[in-house]
Amino acid sequence: MKDRTAALRFHSRLAVHPADLARLVRAPAALSVPGDVIAGAVAAGRPSTPRTLAAIGSSICLYWAGMALNDYADATVDAVERPQRPIPSGRVPRRTALGVAGGLTAAGLGLATAAGGRRSLLGALPLTAAVWAYDLKLKSTPAGPAAMAAARTLNVLTGALLPGAGAAPATGRLRRAAVPAALVGVHTGTLMALSRHEIAGAPARVPATTLAASTATALAAAFPTTVRPVAGHATARLRTGLATTGALAYLGSYGLAQARAVQEPSGENVRRAVGAGILGLMPLQATLTARAGAPALAATLGVVHPLARRLARRISPT
Predict the structure, then answer these.
(1) Considering only CA atoms, which of 87, 85, 107, 109 is closest in space to residue 96?
(2) How many Å apart are CA 32 and CA 22, to the nearest integer?
(3) 3-state secondary structure of 114
(4) Is residue 85 classed as helix, strand or coil in its secondary structure?
(5) Mean pLDDT in residue range 78-107
(6) How far is 24 from 59, CA to CA, in rounded Å?
(7) Are 35 and 301 contacting, i.e. CB atoms less than 8 angstroms apart?
(8) Measured between alpha carbons, how far is residue 97 from residues 6, 78, 286, 291, 303 in Å?
(9) Smallest Cα–Cα separation from 164: which of 265, 257, 246, 52?
(10) Burial (CB count <10 Å: 0-12, 13-18, 19+), residue 118
(11) What is the Cα–Cα distance from 310 to 256, expressed in whole angstroms?
């Protein structure tokens, strides 16, 4: 009887409510992940296939793993700065967060293998290494923003490297996806620069600088110097219209939030800008996807953005 009681108490300590797990991994923020893979695949000329879905699943698992690992690594700091988070509040044991991160990483690598065999697995390993290195070592160093930007850049290139019949050589696909990957990386760099000031606020020059970079990113995504030829004026107008709409939505969410932080660079306004930037990836991805010649996929990404913003009111993406 004593053994059974002890076992029940042990189980109760391990049991975690699904809502708390969702908060741990910032579940709604994962909606910003599929567009990376889609933008890379479309830029490389790859059609959407079940392999694309497996690659998206892999990236989502690795993203969630990074969020859980982030809270595991920051447990001591969060106890002071963000006591409402799942670990310092006691709703999720720290060891459980590490186990979640490990399990999701394994799932992500397994899905990468399903997406493209050994080649896709080898492609997912640098992304995995970037995520773990950032959370456990690089986050608080000057290399932190670059490490996270590299992770998002690699995520876009994951889509470009998906195998398939008639696929161009890998070097050609990477070259085609280089600009979308770089723009997503620049966006992520601005986001990480802001995120370092979420608690105490920032000097006004920080959000001013990131706002300038975001504006340049939106313009480069919507009006690239070279675009893929398309047949028909109607298709060209649709692609241009969707790309312009995506860029305006990007600046209307992330850009305006940064502008408010320039006017009042408090911790609260910076946090709002960071949250807007996480979800703002979706209209940026839609812009890149439309310009690459996939207006239907671009429209889908655009529709997901307001849904993600509503979900973020219930579970913070930061």
Answers:
(1) 87
(2) 15
(3) helix
(4) coil
(5) 96
(6) 17
(7) yes
(8) 23, 14, 32, 39, 32
(9) 52
(10) exposed
(11) 18
Prediction pTM value: 0.89
- The rounded distance, in Å, linking the Cα atoms of 260 and 71 is 28
> Which 3-state string (H, E, C) describes 166-198?
CCCCHHHHHHHHHHHHHHHHHHHHHHHHHHCCC
pLDDT confidence of residue 8: 38
**Which segment of 17-21, 230-234, 235-239, 313-317 scores lowest on mean pLDDT?**
230-234
11 — pLDDT class (breaks 50, 70, 90): very low
Tokens representing 102 are 């490990």
Residue among 28, 14, 18, 6 nearest 99 (CA): 14
Tokens 């939106």 — which residue?
218
- Round to the nearest angstrom and report the end-to-end CA distance of the chain: 44
CA 212, CA 230: separation in Å to the nearest integer? 31
Q: Contact, 34 vs 59, CB < 8 A?
A: yes
Domains present along the chain, CATH in parentheses: 22-312 (1.10.357.140)
Q: How many residues does the chain have?
A: 318
